[in-house]
Design goal:
It is built from 16 helices and 17 strands. The protein is an alpha/beta fold and 514 residues long.
Length: 514
């Protein structure tokens, strides 16, 4: 098979689309026969002189049309039999489903348009939320740890300790999997907390964002569709979209994920589900043990790999922790990501990914292509922190956020009118407020902006701009007295919004001219 004839540098059609079209014709014409093995992504990329992502995207489109099938450990093959073609009403349903999954041809164009529409809305909303606040404004929107929780001189002390032992080990690349001493420290900590982990099950990443992106690359190669919790930190579904996925949402219902939605979306498909089960951003809620076991059961009944984000798990300041979701999932069908960005310092950009060895082995080449290895010095600093001082730091920050959570919830009880509800976190630094239906948190954001207080509107936490009548309050960046003042201003704005009354929903969330 002359694979090089599939590509041309002439014309405007992307290379991946050329390869996909050529393979489609070859299958239809019988040049590629059912059951025939296709060269691996690495082999074919090398033969064609293209990036591996080009080949991956072509394979993904053909798999979703039922023309190729991939099997872990065996490779990719021409599928046996012809792909199913729906007709009538069934055809419309199949077309919509394939469009949402990022199908080929016109359906692929629809998928790309969906991604662009989502990003366009998110970009405009980010621009609105970044408008400059007036001097003295009270920050109830920052979903990051407060710098005041880190004593002066901490970073300098940790850096000196990291450099005191064989500093030459930090002069080169940290390696694709990360600095061995940090992998050992993370594995030891997870094991001490009840999740048996060895260093060779850990990859160090540039924050948890890169860990999720890495999982997204792996899922793309495996032909898995992406499911993501919502509301959520939209940087995570954004990371999946960046590598070519069209993300489908599974909603939180109260303090649990909708298992009905998960069954519907995961049934009969190969999927990867992203979920943050502890002090979830933006709601501050956590899955209790029954909810975790129920989620694990549904995932186990379907071909669903669960990516559990434990970035907030260390920040519990009251109540009893539920067992980790990762340990409830079967080997080979689970990924854990974490970071010290929310519990210690965002600027170090050190996160990690944990998975069973066979799955991790598949991810290491992608990690190497991303960055050749993260910054060795910052990894060494975090290793020193985990060995000496992290537990004491957690005791301080838990007390810090507990006091502020109590101040915030007491103020919300006093200031918010009837019909407005909010969550009561047992950890982390954020909670979720729900207004009556028909009220817009984007209009509320503007009213708060005028009063010198900032919030995070609900649509900023959903890739499709939903949760218009909800918003996040982050209580980690203000002193208790300032929280009370800020929430008093918030209460005034909510009452003004209630006087206006509900309005018809709009794509922007704005029912009035501004």
């Amino acid at each position: 098979m002359n694979w090089k004839s599939s590509l041309s540098t002439q014309g405007d059609q992307p290379l991946y689309r050329q390869l996909e079209s050529w393979m489609r014709r070859a299958i239809e014409d019988g040049k590629l026969r059912p059951g025939e093995r296709i060269p691996s992504v690495t082999e074919l990329a090398g033969e064609l002189g293209v990036n591996k992502v080009t080949v991956l995207r072509s394979f993904r489109e053909l798999e979703r049309d039922g023309l190729l099938s991939s099997h872990v450990g065996r490779g990719t093959f021409v599928a046996n039999g012809s792909p199913r073609v729906a007709s009538g009403a069934g055809a419309a349903t199949a077309t919509a489903t394939n469009a949402a999954a990022g199908g080929s041809g016109a359906r692929g164009d629809v998928a790309r348009s969906i991604r662009r529409l989502r990003e366009s809305y998110s970009r405009g909303l980010r621009e609105l939320l970044s408008t400059q606040t007036r001097p003295g404004a009270i920050n109830l929107s920052a979903g990051v740890p407060c710098a005041a929780t880190i004593p002066d001189g901490t970073l300098e002390r940790l850096a000196k300790k990291a450099m005191a032992r064989h500093p030459e080990r930090l002069y080169g690349y940290g390696g694709a999997t990360g600095l061995p001493e940090l992998r050992e420290a993370i594995a030891a900590r997870l094991t001490r907390l009840g999740q048996e982990t060895s260093p060779d099950q850990v990859i160090i990443t540039n924050g948890s964002q890169q860990a999720v992106t890495l999982a997204g690359c792996w899922a793309l190669e495996e032909g898995r569709s992406i499911l993501s919790e919502t509301p959520t930190f939209t940087g995570m579904p954004g990371a999946f979209s960046l590598v070519g996925h069209t993300v489908e949402s599974v909603a939180w219902e109260g303090a649990a994920l909708s298992l009905g939605a998960l069954r519907s979306l995961a049934g009969g498909r190969r999927t990867l589900l992203y979920v943050c089960p502890d002090f979830h951003n933006p709601t501050g809620q956590s899955l209790d043990e029954p909810a975790r076991r129920a989620l694990a059961s549904v995932a186990n009944q379907n071909d669903c790999v669960v990516l559990t984000d434990e970035i907030f798990r260390d920040l519990r300041f009251t109540g009893k922790p539920a067992p980790g979701l990762y340990g409830m999932l079967p080997p080979g069908r689970r990924i854990l990501v974490g970071s010290i960005s929310k519990s210690f310092m965002t600027g170090l950009r050190v996160g990690f990914l944990v998975a069973d060895r066979t799955l991790l082995t598949d991810m290491i080449p992608s990690k190497r292509y991303m960055d050749l290895g993260g910054a060795a010095l910052t990894q060494a600093i975090v290793a020193e922190l985990l060995r000496d001082g992290y537990d004491e730091h957690l005791e301080r920050v838990r007390a810090y956020y507990r006091v502020r959570c109590e101040a915030a919830t007491e103020a919300l009880e006093a200031e918010l009118p009837d019909g407005v509800t909010f969550t009561r976190p047992e950890g982390g630094f954020q909670l979720w407020v729900q207004l009556p239906r028909g009220l817009s948190s984007i209009e509320l954001f503007l009213l708060c902006h005028e009063r010198g207080v900032s919030i995070s509107p609900g649509p900023a936490h959903d890739i499709d701009g939903r949760y218009l009548n909800c918003f996040r309050v982050a209580y980690g960046h203000a002193e208790p007295k300032d929280l009370r003042v800020g929430i008093h201003r918030l209460g005034e704005a909510v009452r003004q919004l209630l006087v206006r009354g509900p309005t018809e929903g709009s794509a922007t969330g704005l029912g009035v001219l501004v």
